[in-house]
């Protein structure tokens, strides 16, 4: 996916925004429809948080620059739709995240962000050693996947 090649789905046109940092290939997608701007941020920017940068080719400096240069530069009223939220919230706005996001907003410097991310002390995700290679191969099961997970891979690849 390249920023100069919009993605069309029916009558909708999404503008890719290359926002690496959570992963090295991460993209967010901007949709402007009926005068309303929406950005689908995946894990680059979450509501009051952001995706972790300690595995899967993550990089705190890159994520900080991606969010500040590509997402926080959008109009204030742009609606932010993250990939998920652990508190069951579904939408935020650029101005809300720019002003109050405890990791990236409120004028946080790059150095502050790097320190915050380095001190999250998050547990290592279960099955991460199989999930990341599977993601990188677009759903193909990695060789080290146990048999009970291979069945799930086979279903996802077959559709």
UniProtKB/TrEMBL annotation:
Domain of life: Bacteria
Residue ranges constituting the Metallo-beta-lactamase domain according to the UniProt record: 17-84
InterPro entries according to UniProt: Metallo-B-lactamas, Mito_Persulfide_Diox, RibonucZ/Hydroxyglut_hydro
Annotated protein name in UniProt: MBL fold metallo-hydrolase
